[in-house]
Amino acid sequence: MAITMTQAAADRVKSFLVNRGKGVGLRVGIKTTGCSGLAYVLEFVDELNEDDEVFDIMDVKIVVDQKSLVYIDGTELDFVKQGLNEGFEFNNPNVKDECGCGESFTV
């Protein structure tokens, strides 16, 4: 099981951690919500949990709990700028369907 990220995403996470002044890495997870059932969660990690899986990618630690990893295994995290909009994008091969607003998905 694995998570990957693009150079753009790694650079953005590094800059967030530097500006924040602390943190082990970035937690990528899922939560139950939205019209399709699951949504991604991103948060900074200050301490690792016992059940965390850690992926060291381009000097960035991506932390995923075991329950979330089942749904996001094989996902690539990207950072995209389009005009005035920018944000993280998830390229998840497990997604079967997404809601119309793009906020949630099913696997």
Write the layout of secondary structure elements.
Elements: E1 4-5, H1 7-20, E2 25-33, E3 37-45, E4 52-57, E5 60-65, H2 66-72, E6 76-82, E7 85-91, E8 97-98, E9 105-106
Parallel strand pairs: 1-6, 2-5
Antiparallel strand pairs: 2-3, 4-5, 6-7, 8-9
What characteristics describe this protein?
Hypothetical Protein Aq_1857, Chain: A, 107 residues, alpha/beta, four-stranded mixed beta sheet, 2 helices, 20% helix
Structure write-up:
The chain starts with a strand and ends with a strand. The mean pLDDT is 87. The chain has a single domain, classed as Hypothetical Protein Aq_1857, Chain: A (Sandwich). It is built from two helices and nine strands; from the N terminus they run βαββββαββββ. The radius of gyration is 14 Å and the shape is globular.
Q: Provide the residue-averaged pLDDT.
A: 87
Strand content is: over 45%
The CATH superfamily turns out to be HesB-like domain
Spatial strand arrangement across the major sheet: 3-2-5-4
| Global geometry | globular
Q: Please give the count of helices.
A: 2
How many domains would you count in the coordinates? 1
CATH class group? Mainly Beta
Supply the CATH architecture: Sandwich
Oligomeric state as shown: single chain
The sequence of SSEs as H and E is EHEEEEHEEEE
If you consult CATH, what is the topology? Hypothetical Protein Aq_1857, Chain: A
> What's the main sheet like?
4 strands, mixed
Task: Write a short abstract of this structure.
The chain contains two helices and nine strands, in the order E-H-E-E-E-E-H-E-E-E-E. It is α/β, with parallel strands linked by helices and 107 residues long.
